[in-house]
Amino acid sequence: MFESRTYRNLVDAETLTTFQVVVKETDLLVHADRCLRREVRDLVLEHRGYVEAFIDTYPEFMTTLDPWRSEGPAPHIIGNMISAGTVAGVGPMAAIAGAIAESVGRGLLEITDQVIVENGGDVFIKTGKPLTVGIYAGSSPLSMQVGIRLSSEKKPVAVCTSSGTLGHSLSLGQADGVCVVADSCALADAAATSLGNRVRSEADIDRAIAAGRSMAGIAGIVIIAGEKIGAWGNLELIRLEK
To answer: Counting beta carbons within 10 angstroms of the beta carbon of residue 154, is it exposed (0 to 12), middle (13 to 18) or buried (19 or more)?
Structure first.
């Protein structure tokens, strides 16, 4: 079933050029110094090709919900997915959207200084000044009421969101929004899925945050369930203007 990504209407990239690239199931919204649609498409095809070829060889890589045991050399994107799933305690495909966003973003940084790549709520960011990322949490009254102020002038940053109440991604929980900030977009994606699996109600927020704090490489967490919100890490939370 098609689900309109209405949250994309809330993106304000100011002076950057915004464009969309769709390749098979991959649907990216990109902000860059100029339109780089062809370059983005080439990068998506390249990195999707690595993942598709690996799945052809190891079909269970696509379906397992457990961390993947590495067996020899693999493309960089596969290594990122395996590492992220291992840290978060989930299968490698839990990191696929973040891994694609990061691979495309880092590829673009070879030809441009600023880029934002959003892939289904998973965002890779490298910009010349701080920006605020709003947290979309479906029907929760807190959806788009809170944002995270992020700085990526010195190095890229990733912010990924998982939900058990909206979207097509597999989640075993009922959180309206689990947002994770990290240097690695693949890790943030996998961790958001892992923590989202732990939230069945508002009462589970603290337990899920405690689990996230033990995951190496996680810089911050925000969890929204119903009317409750919990946060941890070195984060600057901003009340969003209506």
So the answer is: exposed
Q: What is the pLDDT of residue 2?
A: 33
Cα-based angle 185, 189, 192 (whole degrees, multiple of 5): 135
Neighbours of 226 (CB within 10 A): 17
Percentage of the residues of the chain whose pLDDT score is greater than 90: 79
Kindly report the pTM of this predicted structure.
0.91
Q: What are phi and psi of 163, to 5 degrees?
A: -140, 140
Under 8 Å between Cβ of 145 and 176:
no
Q: What is the pLDDT of residues 136-165, one digit of tens each?
A: 888 899 988 999 999 999 999 999 998 865
* Domains of the chain, CATH where assigned: 12-239 (3.10.520.10)
Concatenated DSSP letters for the chain?
A: -----GGGGG---TTSEEEEEEETTEEEEEEESS--HHHHHHHHHHHHHHHHHHHHH-THHHH--SPPPP-S---HHHHHHHHHHHHHTS-GGGGHHHHHHHHHHHHHTTT-S-EEEEETTEEEEE-SS-EEEE---TTSTTTTTEEEEE--SSS-EEEEEE-SSSSSS--SS--SEEEEEES-HHHHHHHHHHHHHT-SSGGGHHHHHHHHHTSTTEEEEEEEETTEEEEEES-EEEEPP-
Place of tokens 């095809």: 45
